[in-house]
Amino acid sequence: MNLLELFLLAAIWGASFLFMRVATPELGAIVLIALRVGIATLVLVPALRSSQARAQFRSKLRPLLIVSITNSAVPFCLLAYSTLYVNAGMDSILNATTPLWAALVAVTLYQTAMNREQTLGLLFGLAGTVVLVWDTLDSGVKGVPVAIGAALIATLCYGFAVNYSKRNLAGVRPFVAAFGSQFFSTVILLPLAVILWPRHPVANTTWACVAALGIVCTGVAYILYFRLIAHVGASYAASVTFIIPLFGVLWGALFLGEHVTPTTIAGGLIILFGTAMTSGKLRWMVPKRA
Length: 290
What we know:
Elements: H1 2-27, H2 29-44, H3 51-59, H4 61-82, H5 88-95, H6 98-110, H7 116-138, H8 144-168, H9 174-196, H10 204-232, H11 234-238, H12 244-256, H13 262-278
């Protein structure tokens, strides 16, 4: 049952890149993400039903605001923007670099030690990223380099948020943190969304993607994610990172006709291999004997 939920979560989060790819050209990144986090906030309102949860929320307003910026508002918008120029499958693979950035942030900002395996994993992940984007960058299509950079900055934001949350939101109920991040993201993005609201009629398919992003890919996905954490632990739940690209590429190929090249597969596998090493999911170096 836990494995089924893990794959369901990966399928849902993998689909988010498909929905952004469809909806962003018509709504724009900021408007789309403002709607996404706004809907998710409504879905997660029950997180504050207890007085203890409300007290935690009030006591952690500043950390929740910072996490909302670095874990939702900014990276969501950057990833949505990137889908204007790169396909959903590639975006989902670039998203898998998050643990690499998390390790790098831990070393540079928090002076956390990194062992040889993690260092080698980081180098593998960075090499895989170069392989993944090489053909796309070489295509000469205007806007692609900036889009790839935006996706990588988004995952860097995620990497910072992971480290910051561990140190500043310890003891806070996961659903309270999830609600807070979506709530403050809505507060930040809504005024911009009003200004940038499209003047043209929006297609029904776009509205369907908005609803799917907000309700399923954010609200329901958070519920599934924290349910997994509660039942089998954070480490198991975090392994969803390795499965998301599979579904991101699959949905893009099935529903958008995206072409999966050998370079995409090779780059994705190298990134996932490096990510597994960096996050401690894969250990193959023999430890030294004392």
